[in-house]
Amino acid sequence: MTVPSGLPFRFAAVFGFVLLIAVSARLSVPMVPVPMTMQTWAVLLAGVVLGPRWGGGAVLLYLAVGLAGLPVFSDGASGVGPLTGPTAGYLLAFPFAAALAGAFAGKGRPRGFVRATAGLFGLHLMILTLGTGWLAVRMGASPALAAGFTPFLIGAAVKSLLVVLAARALSAVPGLRRG
Fold it and tell me: Comparing C-alpha atoms, which of 122, 82, 49 is closest to residue 17?
């Protein structure tokens, strides 16, 4: 069986990742002021699988879809609110993290299990740092660290490991190989 490749398949993969990120936003643990979701897993996986440009583009498209009013953000939110409220720093870090994950992954499969997991954990830390920085502007540094950084560390480590496992599984799909 031949797996389709080329531009149409790549566009389909981008839309697939937009959908995956949206679904991952719904997989959440309610927390205040920022919920814990699976979004960062999907965002980093998009970068690893699709590469820096297409993965980053998929995340930008996800943000645009949410901004346009489709309920793709956590808790079914949409519009300007999530991009200006407590979650803004995290959401705005997503495209950069996806692009960096794509650059880090090279040919679509990060080399070395421990190295790949550590590198992706570093990207999770970048997202958390930017998100917490935005929260700190709104609520002060100490409460922002306590509410927007520290509780997410274990989840970030687990999600980093899951990105590596998923990327290794997806690397066997010829049509998803990065071009």
Answer: 49
Query: How far, in whole angstroms, is CA 53 from its chain's centroid?
Result: 14
pLDDT of 49 > 50? The answer is: yes
In contact, 36 and 156? CB cutoff 8 Å = no
Asked whether 43 and 94 are in contact (CB, 8 A), the reply is yes
Q: Summarize the confidence of residues 78-98 as an average pLDDT.
A: 98
**Torsion angle of C-alpha atoms 67, 37, 172, 115, degrees rounded to 10:** 110
Give the span between the Cα atoms of 50 and 47, in whole angstroms: 5
Is the separation of the CB atoms in 156 and 122 below 8 Å? no
What is the C-alpha separation between 127 and 117, in angstroms, rounded?
15
E strand or H helix that includes residue 29: strand 28-29
Within 13 A of 71's CA, how many CA atoms are on the CB side? 4
Token duo for residue 19? 């959908």
Q: Report the Cα–Cα distance between both ends of the chain, in Å, rounded.
A: 20
Q: Give pTM, 2 decimals.
A: 0.93
- The CA-based dihedral angle spanning residues 61, 51, 159, 70, taken in that order and rounded to the nearest 10 degrees: 10
User: What contacts 62, CB < 8 A, 6 or more positions away?
Assistant: 17, 18, 21, 22, 72, 94
State yes or no: cis peptide before 151, omega within 30 of 0.
no
